[in-house]
Amino acid sequence: MTLRLFAATRNFEMNSRIVVGRLLILLGLFGGFVSVWYTLNFTWNPQFQSVNLPDAPTHSNYHAFRGAMLALAANLLLFWAAFKARALSPEVWSVVTFVAVFYYLGWWAAWPIWGLHAPSFVAEMNHVIGTVGGLGGLLFLQPRKTV
To answer: Is the pLDDT confidence value at 78 over 70?
Structure first.
């Protein structure tokens, strides 16, 4: 009886941990996909061109497209991890977390280094939601050793 109760409690703990992790990643995906959309919009925006680059004024538009595609890949990887949460091995979880950490560093590291940040308070809050959701969700989905 005690063993069965222990197993049921452990199963409930695992289920609730995965549900919370998935919900947080969903929150992170909201922030991520909003960011992908706005970044992708810079691809065809002529005002985003680098007019001082005579050989390649559309180079910044190209980088916006590349950035959006890389962000899309990172967000789809997070979605996949949330979907496969019960089957994530520690190695796969580590790779997903590595990609996510560098994805979110792209949002935050440029500010203390070069003073670059999101263009508005709303965009900054979107990045906060994305980062907390994505990394928080991955912490909850981290595979646990079984006893």
So the answer is: yes
